[in-house]
Amino acid sequence: MVGDLGVDTRTRSSVITARAAATFDPVGRSVATARSFVRDTLQGWGFTDIVDDAVVLTSELVTNAVVHAGTAADVLCLRSEDAVRIEVSDHYPEREIPLQQSAVNMGNPDREGGRGLQLCAALATRWGVDYTPTQKQVWFQLDLPDRSVGTRAAGPALPAEMLPLTDGRVRVAVVQIDRVGAISAWNEDAEELFGYAAEQVTGKPLTDLAAWPHTPGTSTGIVEALRLSRWEGSYGIRGSDGRVTPVYASHLRVRDADGEPSTVCLLVRDDERAVLQTPLRGPAPEPGTLTEAHPTDPFEVFIGSPAPDDLDGLLQRTVERARDMLDGDAAFLLLATDDETELEVRASTGLPSARQRFARVPVEAGPGRYGSARMPAVHEDLTVVPGAVPLLSGTGMRSVVTVPLKVEGRLTGSLGVAAESPDRYSNEEALRLQFAADRIALAVESARLGELERLRRGSLSFLVEASDLLAGTLDRDQTLALMAQMTVPTLATWCAVYTIADQSSEPYLSYVLHEDEERIDGLKALLSKIAPPDPVPTPGARVWAAPSEAAHQAALRTSMRSLGLGEPLSLGSGIGTTLSTASAVGGETVVLPLVARNRVIGMLTLGKPSDEHFRQEILELAEDLSRRAALALDNARLYSERMAISQSLQRSLLPPGLPQVPGVEVDVIYRAAGEGNEVGGDFYDLFPIRDGAYGFAIGDVCGTGPEAAAVTGLARHALRLLAREGFGGPAVLERLNAAILDEGARSRFLTLLYGELWPQEDGSAVLKIVCAGHPLPLRLRQDGTVEPYAEPQPLLGVMEDLELYEQTMTLDPGDVLLCVTDGVTERREGTRMLGDDGLADVLTTCTGLTAGAVAARIMRAVERFASDAPSDDMAILAMRVPGLQKD
What positions does the domain PAS occupy (predicted)? Predict the structure, then answer.
């Protein structure tokens, strides 16, 4: 009901030049109606500069009246020469209203004296509360800015079928965000729109719920948007069911009585954005109305001034202006790929959430293809030609006009405006829209190229860093972790890596990562229950729908069980976890093959949260990364395999174990120099020759690594073979010398201590020793004296005519024979060297120790002598004759 409330204006200081009044019933939809009433009134008066503030304040005050107070609301708009006053009255005067001077907490949007008054304090020039016996009135005044006389903007009266569409009752979610970005207030409409009760979200960051359409390096992020004094635009809110609801938002930065800043967010469904959206500053002129006396840039006429400085803002402004220019219900803009074979959704208004950003549509003709993208087209009724404009399928739009965006004859995009009624558009509207598209095409292409350049610079830096990281490791598990960590969250919300051991093996889920660590376990459990993607070697990303479908099915089953419609919930399988997982994988999932050396070795799977698509530039970057990651992963596999083979071969060069020698304790400590080496140039052996006789050897091949290990294997096996053939020590070494010389260029010098051991019945042991260029063995007696136990002779592998001899000696009970390689005696710390004397000094402290204890003490002394890691192989062979045991 609209009428004159008869308010006496004689007490006001300014002259009232116009008034408009309306009464709204105590129902929720009245809030949106009141907003429209105030917006239309102020636009009709030409006061577009203050429309936004007035609508925000009216929305809150009418909400207090019709929703919280539960009474009808009377709205009166009064115009004076320099200000506008708006009064909102309800019929519940006994409710307490805090005075302006009172320091009260106004943080709860459901309090009548809460958000509405807080916003009044922040936005209005003056405000107050008046009581009468039958009414309570809250009023605010907004001063008009100085501007040229005659500037006007108004929305004309429209037929009902041309008004903006809404979905049932219009709900306006009011969410307050504190200074750290956490939700501090959440009203009833927010509960209805998104499914969360206030206690579920209070204290949580808004970023946990927001699906922000933001590409790194371009446009504004949500954290920045919440800190701006005012912000208006579109994004998504993840609901309790795991799906994203596109919303149109108006943010206002305010501060409370204590000076603490916070942000008030008004949210409506995106297709109801007309409820909140700032109106045009001025109507776009018709083509041909520009005069020479007032030259104006046609681009600025259509887009407005100032033009957005980022691509996303420019595209969104474009679709909004196009929709308003043709009085449409929806509008959309798609950008073409470089090869013009596909169009990518980059901006839309008035369309439901199914029209996801970055969704791609083929251009050429055919079912589900956008065949009219290259020329202006008018579709009078889409039901006659289903799928003619794939973006509009299932949206309820009936008529549409589309025009191409072209630069120098090349298709760069497509702009369209749609309506829910058929036969709305003709060639005249197509010409008007084409005129506008021609004016903005170059600016859009320039902004797109600028964004691509920023992305490519960032991509190049990203790939260089990724290559360095991947090249820095040959460990398979670390390579898998790096692959996932580089993609999340830079390229995707979550990532999974499948590996394939060989051509006959099934893909195996090797690594899972999500940007929210709490969702990793649920995501891993979900992926483990579904079949892995097929290992297709075709390059490029392909969509994989299985995770999203499985997540939504699991969420549906869980929701039904929670309502008692299915099997009861088991312990530990809460609805929150399932819905959280569904939200995490509810968007687009793509699979990129990991191909190395012409073989598929795995798949890299990238995913987005609910109702999100990957943009093409991100997929191209992911493809570049997958090629580098595949080679790094295959290199790690080859390195691991070759290392395993090398270590297996090296272990074969060492004796499998030491035999038990009656009456003699034997122990060995061996350390090979170099990472990954188990055997180097030093070696040892102890083996039975015949009954009662044992051979032992310790040697050092010139050099380290695999080449030295090859001579090591030759020497160890030749010693055993020759000794068991009955040759004595000198003959064994002379034949070994000939075998080494036969290796030619692969031969190495070899120092070798070889001996034969005969344990005796009296507890002693007889030894025959040949020391061919090797450090002399040391004998430790029971009285602590240490002496060399052989004489030096020529080393092997140098000359052909070698004459060696053996020396026979006896180890008495309690004696220790210590044999080492030069890696022990030549251990250095700066200019100091352990040497033979240093080794002998350490050995003197080993009286009474077992053979194992002697070897361990010698090794500890060597390691403590210098702080650096050993640069040479080391072998220690200790033999001790304990003597006869007494009963």
Answer: 174-204
